[in-house]
Amino acid sequence: MNGNLRIKALPTEFYDQFLSERAKNLKPSPIRGLYPLEKQPGVISLLAGKPEPSTFPFTSLSFTAKDPTDGNTEITIAIPRNELTPGLQYSDTAGLPDLLKWITALQELSHGRKHGRNVSGEGEEGWRVSMGTGSQDMISKSATALINPGDSILVESPVYAGVIPIFRNMDCKQIEVPTDADGIRSTSLKEILENWPESQKRPKLLYTVPYGCNPTGMTASLERRKEVLRLARQYNFIILEDDPYYYLYCDKATRPASYFALEVTEPCGEETGKAYAEVGRVLRFDSLSKVLSAGLRIGFASGPEAILRRVDMLTANANLQVSSLTQLIAFRLLDFWGYDKFFLHTRNVSAFYKQKRDVFERELQKWLGGGAPEEGECDEGRLAEWVSPEAGMFFWFKLLVETSTEPSSPSLEEQDSRTLIETHAFANGVLALPGTVFLPNGSKTPYVRASFSLLDENQVIEAMKRLRKTVLEVRNLDSK
User: Fold this and answer.
1) Fewer C-beta neighbours within 10 Å, C or N terminus of the chain?
2) pLDDT per residue over 172-199, tens digit each?
3) Which ranges carry the Aminotransferase class I/classII large domain (predicted)?
4) If we measure between CA atoms, which residue out of 420, 426, 448 comes closest to residue 436?
5) In b/e form, how buried is each residue of 300-339, taking b as 16+ CB within 10 angstroms?
6) pLDDT tens for residues 288-333?
């Protein structure tokens, strides 16, 4: 963190302009809203209808896990009855207190943020953490808390397909901001904002996946991130930073700072002769699914208290809380490891996916990138184009089906991969996702998303052979 910067958190009332009408009308749960009072010393609570723990049949829990320092060694973590009770009982809506504390410190270590007053005693950064049933749960509830019908929101394009129906169900207008090999195009974003019609309400949100974006695998450069944050401050919008692949970054270059981290290091003005950084424009979403277990269904949001308070109200109304037991299991593992072993584990996971990425790209180059053809097969040149992903578990590649250069023939941009993938490729025994499902407005595209996370080397080779066969078959059909 830049120690010369004064940190200036946006006040609670600032967020009134961003909250949806539904969020403004939310009322605290009549029961859960009083939970904090139970913790006051000397209070006898007749409040909640919590079951008596002695009636639960579970008496202890133990599980084994890998030791990150030696992948072949397993450790056993036992949770005796007296320590198991928090996992068997209702807990706080925002999350199990011990896990919240651990995750809050993780965010401090990973992103340079401070929870509470800073070292000089000046102000607070105004953020905290809430747990969700996976990060998508938090994204959906945050969208509900922030979007009114008819609102315009900015979404990078291509975009994670899972959020398209979320935003569509909010009945909002999704304004696509194109991306390239360096992530979201800040120049395009600037152009959209500069030319926004004065008669229309400006967008108040930008959704982006900055590391190993699903589907493109691209990671936004530091320069792009700084410009996007500057535009957020200038044009008054909040950045929804969806970052499930943060710990799957495997490029040789230093990992760029997150938007959550940049808030406290990028100055935005001066007051009384001292530069300051305004914080509170980033709502960040993380997930334990990619590094601990997808089945635990644990994600978390970090951001302004004023927004997360409304998200917690939605949770209290919908499902009360994230499973106490899965939170307890996650906490006991993380607490046993400590932060050093957690970071070591994530580096091991990242290295694992890097190896898989390299195998996939090697075979992609051989079979679709203009490599040596099979014996007796004509050299058809390149059949696909792509950029190597720096994080995540996906390749995003353009299938080069159209070979004609005649002006009357369809351009490559007009070719659509949907039929090729869903019909021809499937008939040849290989399946991927056509790129159109990642475009908010359903445009046609020659791109395809392929996941390399589960395939072994032989499966990758066979998949690339089948894709090559498919593209050549379609080329021959188009040439007739």
Assistant:
1) C
2) 999 999 999 999 999 999 999 999 999 9
3) 87-467
4) 448
5) bbbbbebbbbbbbbbbbeeeebbbbbbbbbbbbbbeebee
6) 999 999 999 999 999 999 999 999 999 988 888 898 899 999 999 9
The class that CATH gives domain 351-479 is: alpha beta
Express each pLDDT in 127-141 by its tens digit: 999 999 999 999 999
Domain ranges for the chain, please list them: 19-32+91-343, 351-479
Fold of 19-32+91-343: Aspartate Aminotransferase; domain 2 (3.40.640)
Distance CA 146, CA 424 (A): 42
Please, are residues 222 and 400 in contact by the beta-carbon 8 Å criterion?
A: no
Instruction: Dump pLDDT digits (tens) for 69-113.
Output: 987 889 999 999 888 988 878 788 899 999 999 999 999 999 999
- What is the DSSP secondary structure assignment for residue 240, as one 8-state letter? E
Cα distances (angstroms) measured from residue 211 to each of 47, 86, 312, 393, 464:
44, 34, 27, 11, 26
Burial letters 346-371, b for 16+ CB under 10 A, else e: beebbeebbebbebbbbbbbbbbbeb
